[in-house]
Hints:
This protein has helices at about 30-35, 45-70, 80-85, 85-95, 115-130, 150-155, 195, 210-230, 240, 245-260, 270-280; strands at about 20-25, 75, 95-100, 135, 160, 170-175, 180-185, 230-235, 265, 285. By secondary structure, the chain is α/β, with parallel strands linked by helices. The mean pLDDT is about 95. The site of zinc ion has 6 residues, from loops.
Amino acid sequence: MTAPFHLQSGFSWPQGKRFAASLTFDVDAESGALAFDSTFHKRMSLMTHQHYGPTVAVPKLLALLAHHDIQATFYVPGYTADLYPDMVRSLVDAGHEIGHHGWMHEKTTALADAQEAEMLDRGLESLARVGVTPVGYRAPWWEYNYRTTELLLERGFRYDSSLLDGDVPYRFRSAQDAPGDLVEVPVDWAMDDWEQFAFYPEWTGSGVIESPTKALEMWSYEADVAAQAGNCWVLTNHPFISGRPSRLAALSELITHIKNLPGAWFATLEQIAEHTRTVVDEVRVHRRIPDPGPQPGQDPDGRPTSPVRDNL
Ligand code: ZN
């Protein structure tokens, strides 16, 4: 495949590399379900479905990554680190990056300023108890708030990976005159295993469980295009979802496919973010859209008057 000229990103990757590829794993475990409905702690089968991630899937993932000699990035909610400290230590011992992923995988759009700060601090304290000081953040459900940048900079973070407006990393700050900046390593729902495989009755909603070969085909094609365009290919997987045997087998095939693409740079998001600081001078500010007011079909607060399917 040859990408048309207009698809070339023009981004400068390290010497000899033409694109970046990063495997990221969000170790939500029980927290993602409990943040949705805390009474789920009583549902033993659902808890085992989540518990599968840190206990059964992570050891297999570690073996897979060691086999391919790849360092990955694991985003770990504080609650997961508190429940499974030895699992987090095993990730650190294997040389993988640990990033912050909330405390209880909070619905961040529902948080007040002080609550979001407390969530960040609780997550940092939990990670500190297992010896980790993260430099990267990924908002639960990729829901980043306009105020989050300042909260992250105050706490020494270097990058985020929750926003959806880029094919390559970029630098940004909260306002033109604000001090400091973060690197964003953008994500994409087409590159997330949630939409392919996540199913649990009365929780995840969609009811669709795709074939691992379909996901392999989709993510391989994404990599082919990223390789041609010089983009940043970031896959987001969840151990409780993608740690199942057939999906791990497909992931292994996917890694082999990418390794065979010319100029592949397998890296952690921390490595990609630090590289970005060396080659990008421009620092962006996200434009805030003014409140357009209630629209037809919305109530006086601007909320939809007909039910919207909640897919989480
Ligand atoms: Zn998550």
